[in-house]
Amino acid sequence: MALNLDKQMPDLPKEVVYCKNCVTSNQRPRIRFNEQGVCSACEYAYEKDHVIDWAARERELQELCDRHRSKDGSYDVVVPGSGGKDSAFVAHQLKTRYGMHPLCVTWAPFEHTDIGWYNLQAFVRTGFPNIMAMPDGAVHRKLCRLAFELIGDPFLPFIFGQKAYAYHVALQHDIKLMFYGENGEVEYGGSEKYKYVPKEGPDDWEAQYFKGTSVDELMKVGIERGIFSPDEVSPKSLWWYKPPHPDLIKDAGLEMHWMSYYQKWIPQENFYYASTHTGFVPNNVGRSEGTYTRHSSLDDKVDGFHYYLAFIKFGLGRTTRDCMTDIYRGHLTRDEAVSLVHRFDGEFPAEHYEHFKEYLGITDEQFWEVINAYRAISNVWEEVDGEWKLKVQVS
To answer: Keyword Zinc-finger, does the record have it (predicted)?
Structure first.
């Protein structure tokens, strides 16, 4: 556990400061605070309400769809997603409002939850063809363990494929256009490189989404530590985790666009829309672990540990993420959000803990060794009389 491959952490400010408008802090990688102490995500939320010309963005979207729409009903856009509220919203809008013919693709979760599998099936039943990729399970589990131990995010192998798989499908089916949901870097406070453009390419994935580490680097350490044998490592076994060669992308004319550039992104409204049109149902318990909502990130039994590790490393958990968007939309006041963060952020994801340990092949002691190792190198924790406590909380 001595090696930390999350290259974002050393660049974070040592002093923890919270946004004056929402509940996030400067520990969110790549976030920017202005002179008034307001974060870049809040600035962008203001622009969405008061600056951006959404009618002009709508015309851009119409023109984009007009250029790519097939005349014979063949697939003309790839939409990656899980059957969750956001991807369902994007696919249904493209099909019913813009006359497109989406081919939907799913990079499979590590392990489907019952509700996640139900929602994917419900989505398909409402009229959407879907291709699912399930990578080599043995390789995938080992990558998950390595990412947990060396990067502090067991979810990273899923993110590799989530970003890359749609490109492979688009190439195979000669489809030029791909549509993702939101530009998370801009919406939640991160890189502003693509703030005013509708699309990105794979060039910045490693820095912005993969925490500065490629699947090749992760695999290399896995071989050095004896977790992977050399015969498990081949271009074939890693093919889906990496995008096609840049020349192939360029020659094929592939374009990946965000719906959030063209339409104001409101997760709560996406939930209502998907519930109405694609049979989406929320968690069948009062709320999801670690937050007060029950309609987001429902698909994977590993999801809760992705958010929990974010809380351990940055002091920013699942409740913080949900509160940010609800503050932007006026669904919560900041005082209400602070109370929710104090109550639920960092709640331990107990429901799938036993499964998580079994999936990674670790013990309870090994789990907490990793957790405490990341606490020790973070800027947000201190050990007092043998107990870990946050140095400062949003107030």
So the answer is: no
